Amino acid sequence: MELLLVLTAIGLTGLLGAVRLAMRSRAEAVRLRAINNALESRVAERTRSLRQALDAAGDQALALADVNRARADFLAGMNHALRTPLNAVIGFSDLLTRNAEHEPLTHKQARAVAEIRVAGTRVLGLIDRILDFADIEARPVAVSVTRIDPLLIVRQVVEALRVQAAEAGVILQAPAASPGYTLAADPERLRQILTNLVSNAIDHNKRGGTVLIEVRRAGDSMTVAVHDDGPGIAPERMADLFQPFCRLLPGADRQQPDEHAAIGVGLAVAHRLAEAMGGTLTAASTLGEGSSFTLTLPLAMAASRAASGSVDEVGEAIDLSALTVLYIEDNAANITLMRHVMSALGPSLHVAETGRAGVALARDLRPDVILLDIHLPDVDGFEVKARLVDDALTRDLPVVALTAGSGPAEARRGHDMGFAAWLTKPLDIALLTTTLQQVAGAGPPPLRRQAA
């Protein structure tokens, strides 16, 4: 009996324990379910938040893309809008200077024309620097590396900046012409870099100072150094020298008016272009003694003669008065300027003010050279070029772009489409002259083509 009671007690105790365990398990299950529900709710809330954040990021990306497109459109429009009147300002001032022998100017008039030319060139330089920086900021730097003669590019830059140096009272010294080595570089980008460096050296020099350009070989590379003996740069400014909008202050001994003030993007542009071509741009300066900027680029190959391919290399001189030129342009001031320029240079000029009229006139006239604006009111210059190529009568006519659009993308597209040359406004009369010489010299004799 006692054994039975013991066994009953044990059974009841086990049953009670099982009931307690079941109740604890049920409570734990309820607790776990509540935790799981809370976790699922939190995950769902986080998922909704992430989805909302992704949607917002997508909207922001689309808005940013719209802003970038709007900025690109604005800059392209500003470039064209500013270059078009500058074409008349610089072009007519050049024309007055070139015609001074036949139509003499008084001393005051000559001085006024020179001031107009210098001011126009300065504005053009500011436009170029701002647009270069905006283009580099908006997209990866595009370069087209080829073999070039650095001395040729240096001399071209020096000649282009002699007026600026003379106006500032600065002596500009270029390296002597000599057989050298060929660089692996983009000629237009190299010209941009050197223009920025030499222009800065002139602007931040002292009156009576000197800007010296040196070209030297350094192992498998070549260096182009620009030295000035201006006031120099403070050591604390050197670290930020190639940052955008770092403005170098002119020396205290150089009374520089506000229009000479730097906008602080030229060196940043030059630095990024040097890196894009696999090179480096470094600076050294001593206060009170001057500064040096050294561009280092890879050497392409040894050369016993200068690289070819420059518009400065013209063979037998062409009699420009024997040429017939078709100018396709819609701006009245530009047309008037070109009439004066061609009257001075000698070619017979015909004008079409729309792309369609230009194509029709090219078929009838078959000119020796076509000068083509890209931004026309009906069809753009690229379409005009394509239509000329599609026609057997006009496909071989050399077409030279003369446009206010100076972007590298447009220039590359023009090169790919077979433009004979790509000139940008404002018009450089000397460059136009050598281009006409080169383009006409590369084709059949002018009168022979018209008679064919």
In short:
The protein has helices spanning 2-98, 107-138, 150-160, 162-168, 187-203, 235-238, 266-276, 332-345, 355-365, 381-390, 408-417, 429-442, 446-451; strands at residues 146-148, 171-173, 181-185, 210-218, 221-228, 280-286, 290-302, 324-328, 348-352, 369-372, 399-403, 421-424.
**Which band does the percent of strand residues land in?**
15-25%
CATH architecture of the domain at 145-302: 2-Layer Sandwich
Number of strands: 12
> What is the residue-mean pLDDT, rounded to a whole number?
79
Characterise this structure.
The chain is an alpha/beta fold and 452 residues long. Helix content is 54%, strand content 16%. The protein has 13 helices and 12 strands. The strands form 2 sheets. Strands 1, 2, 3, 4, 5, 6 and 7 form a 7-stranded mixed beta sheet that branches. A 5-stranded parallel beta sheet has the order 9-8-10-11-12, with helices on both faces. Helix 3 packs across helix 5 and helix 9 runs parallel beside helix 10. The radius of gyration is 35 Å and the shape is elongated.
